[in-house]
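Quick one, T. Sequence first:
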Amino acid sequence: MAKNEELVFGIHAVNALLASAPERFIEIWLLKGREDDRLMPIINLARKYGIAAQMAQRKVLDEKSLGEQHQGVVARVKPGKVFNENDLDDIINNAEKNDTPPFLLILDGVTDPHNLGACLRNADAAGVQAIIVPKDNAARLTATVRKVAVGAAEFVPLIQVTNLARTMKHIQQMGVWIIGTAGETDTCLYDVQLSGPLALVMGAEGKGMRRLTRENCDQLIKLPMAGSVSSLNVSVATGICLFEIVRQRLN
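Structure tokens:
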């Protein structure tokens, strides 16, 4: 595959991209013999936009998706917009113009693409306006991430930054309060006011946030853990924290 091309697979991921950016599609491969209710919308949209679509055996799709679960559809597409630090100001300013407090998610050192995809899905459901990740030592927006995110990757900007600590300081100067999760603090998630302009920081599973990231948080919180397991999967913990913020904003 050429450098200026990407793969997208999975029914929800391909559907979401077809709905939001059909001009990016080069070609679609569909599982031969499967023209059921789940694949027909993709087939119909491909025909509507004049996108080349061909039937292929499962082995071909398995090879194209590198063995990942493709659900009978693989697409070759042009790369989408890559977001960076310069886009953050617009996202924060647009939120304030719409009388919506900025709501950001920062992932520090999350390297597993399945966790990143699940966090994208959580973020979209909770109304997060952007996810911020470091360029190095972090999962990138791959076909696997898009598939796990079931379409959310097309709607929540993933912003890669070269210096996470500097970016955190910048959004603080724009009035965004930064809450970090850390097991060593005594402050519980449910005891903190979380209704204003906010960025939630989640660290890598096991390691947590890096030292500089932790030092640049305005406040640290933790989830109350009653069992013998010391931590939760990062995407699960992210979902719990995001929806506590949502709950407070609705009250």
